[in-house]
Amino acid sequence: MKMTTKLMATSALVFAPLAAGAQDMADEMTIVSWGGAYSASQQAAYHDPYMENTGVTIINDESSAEAVAKLRAMNEAGNVTWDVVDVVASDAIRLCDEGLAMEIDADEQLADGDDGSKASDDFGDLLVSDCFIPQIVYSTTVGYRTDLVGDTPPTDICAIFDTETYPGMRSLEKRPIGNLEWALLCDGVAKEDIYDVLETPEGQDQAFAKLDTVKDSVVWWTAGADTPQLLADGEVIMGSTYNGRLFSLIVEQEQPVEMLWDAQVFDLDGWIIPAGLSEEREARALDFIKFATDTQRLADQAKYIAYGPARASSAPLVSTHATLGIEMAPHMPTDPANATNTFLYNYEWWADYRDDLDAKFQAWLSQ
Amino acid sequence: MAEQVLAADGRPLKTSLNRALRRQKLRALMLIAPLLLFILLSFVMPIADMLFRSVENQIVGETLPRTVVELKDWDATSGAEPDAAVFEALARDLSIAVEEKSHTRLGSRLNYELTGISSLFRKTGRSVDEVGEAAQDALEALSPAWAERSAFGGLLGTARWTADLDAWDGEGTAPAFEARPEMAAALPETTRLYTSFANMVGAEGDNPLTEKQWPIVSHVFAQEIVTAETPDGLDAFGQAVFSDVKAAMAATTLDDPKAIFIDVDEDWGSTDVWRTIQTYSPAYTDGYFLNSIDRLKGADGSEARPENEQVYVTLFIRTMIMSFTITVSCIVLGYPIAWLLANLPARKANLLMILVLLPFWTSLLVRTSAWKVLLQQQGVINDILVWIGLVADDNRLQLINNQTGTIIAMTHILLPFMILPLYSVMKTIPPTYLRAAKSLGATNWTAFWRVYFPQSIPGIGAGSILAFILSIGYYITPEIVGGTKGVFISNRIAYHISTSLNWGLAAALGAILLAIVMLFYYAYDKIVGIDNVKLGG
């Protein structure tokens, strides 16, 4: 009797930590992302190795485009079914403001860089919100049809507004962000003054007046696939879209299109963890994030898609495309040759002015 | 008076009948109960909840309860910022809100009304713990005991609470704070703030006695202790507090929240921010509805928005006109097809029916994207027109990304909704009527117009209602082919739901749209009569 008790007590002592270890993390997780080539690159670079290492089942959900609204609805219903969500930085800021995403301490909860730097230094300025773990740097830039722009191909962003030299349709994103900055830039405002000017009603009028000059020759796009399609069909002679989309149009589909890196607008995409997860799920999500945003993993993703890794320490590790075998570094928005004139999206400023300028932009569009 | 008729069991027949009927009705209700419950839970309640958001505005009062009360008497037209008491209240409210992380949420709510409040709240949230540093320093200078974290807990909390905390094993949430009644009477606001602090720390699984209290607690304590009356039955520590500490605090210069806030951001010194908070402090607001009709809450009543921000009224009108155009196009195109369907021999009619239904079964996105390929300037239709020489190559027709595109694509998509009810009504019109009319000397046209058409009107009615109501709420197709001039109000609703998170405005726009549909339905019932609508038979 005594012996059995003792045995049971010992086995309980031995097995308790094991059992606790297994309970600490959920063995299934739902990761939300954008779908398409982007999700495929994440699957190859992050999900597959992680599932192999840990035996966790990862369920993919392609709802990132509606992530903000869905997370809010889930939060109100008290039933958050997502564990890790891929969002753009401005959405991450909004989610963080609304208390829908969990705050993360970069140095404590993320891996150090391979070069020994702390995570907060390695990501540097790209940690634009307390809840956001950056993954890639992408840019919105302009591509043009080499066969439709005449003998002098455009070299700078203001070609968008130059309908005399480049007659024909152009496509721009159906939102104020990016377009207003380009309009002011091409109206003679210095790059560093743009947001100061855009804060004033006169500055806003100036930007809209500049956009007015091309309003009749613009096709407005809402999905990233629109501009590549319009370019391929010859519907537009130039248009803005994400650099990765242009990369696959030029390199993979070999269309007569060139890229204009001038005044590319940098933006970030990365992970957030929804607020209000159970302890086990939160631990699992954190574990995944730590793995998926380490130096090597971020560099790996660049094998599959032309977006720059968010860690400084990942840049030297970027290698060749997994199937095409070409060097990826020259196709990164962050490559020094491409980044001679770049534009950094001002998150804080847009968080304030987005509602107001969007109303004005919509009113302007419908006039 | 006639004698009462009795049933077989001796009860009055009337009661007996009523009873049987009631039982029958109950049974019928039980039969539909699952469906009723389902509709109630999954349809009526979510819609009601969503509509409620169009007026709901509790977030301001809940996040800034003290400020809202203090701000009530401030005169926005005076041109001067509110007095120190308001800033004092704001410091207290914000200190709690920052810990709850609800201040940024309020910031984005108010940013819908005044640009810049979002970052104002975020920025101020980072500096709000400066209020109270002076008091905290003075307390610690007075006695190191105040640097010890449990000092406030011991002073304000009951002995039972501290004992419970000592016995607490650190699992789950800590025992809820219990204030000493005499302290709650002597130092009411300090107690309230400490309660928030202790319960919030406890909810995170930490022990409030080992955590340093928020600076605002020290700040408010230093203010209150100076005028507080000494309660009876204090221990040595408590007596020291109400004599020495009281005297020391009276001699301390405390932080001035007003100076600190205005130093953080000069916008706190402007009346705009305060006016916005004051205007939106009630729990319910008509602000979203005003916004939906391009107006705003100004200094005195509602006023029109600046012209470069007016968009919704235009969109509502456009949605109505275009939906009407689409419905009419559906009637014009659908009527002959339905007539053919109803009058062709069965074999041919079936083939035609399949042609009508085939697009109906194809995915909406596929159909819309197909229209894109057809209609664009380098698309199939333009290519053909150029090829046959109707249109010059450098002057191709603009058929997409405008209203034309939306009308063409939506007419195609909604056509089956018109054809099917028309067909089922026409099927029931006996061909003998037409023959009879003709044999009585009517021309083809007269026979059709005077005899056939009036009988097909219920089908037109049903089809029109379906097509019109469906098209009013459509958003995918206009989004893809509508460009800038061909989008509907539903595209803005979708934007506010999924991107800007301004659900209140989305709900108000939706409520107006719902009201318009109801109005049309009512008008239709009055003019045509809803009994004249037939979906078949």
UniProtKB/TrEMBL annotation, chain A:
Source taxon at top rank: Bacteria
Transmembrane segments annotated in the record for this chain: none
Keywords: Signal
The keyword Signal belongs to this UniProt entry's keyword annotation: yes
Family annotation (InterPro entries): SBP
SUPFAM superfamilies membership: Periplasmic binding protein-like II (SSF53850)
Signal peptide region: 1-22
Entry protein name: Putative spermidine/putrescine transport system substrate-binding protein
UniProtKB/TrEMBL annotation, chain B:
Alphabetical list of CDD domains matching this protein: TM_PBP2
Positions of the ABC transmembrane type-1 domain: 316-524
Bilayer-spanning residue ranges: 28-48, 315-342, 349-366, 407-425, 457-476, 503-524
Domain of life: Bacteria
Membrane topology: Multi-pass membrane protein
GO cellular component terms attached to this protein's record: plasma membrane
Keywords of this entry: Cell membrane, Membrane, Transmembrane, Transmembrane helix, Transport
The keyword Cell inner membrane is annotated on this UniProt entry: no
UniProt xrefs under InterPro entries: MetI-like, MetI-like_sf
Protein name per the record: Putative spermidine/putrescine transport system permease protein
Organism: Yoonia ponticola
Organism lineage: Bacteria, Pseudomonadati, Pseudomonadota, Alphaproteobacteria, Rhodobacterales
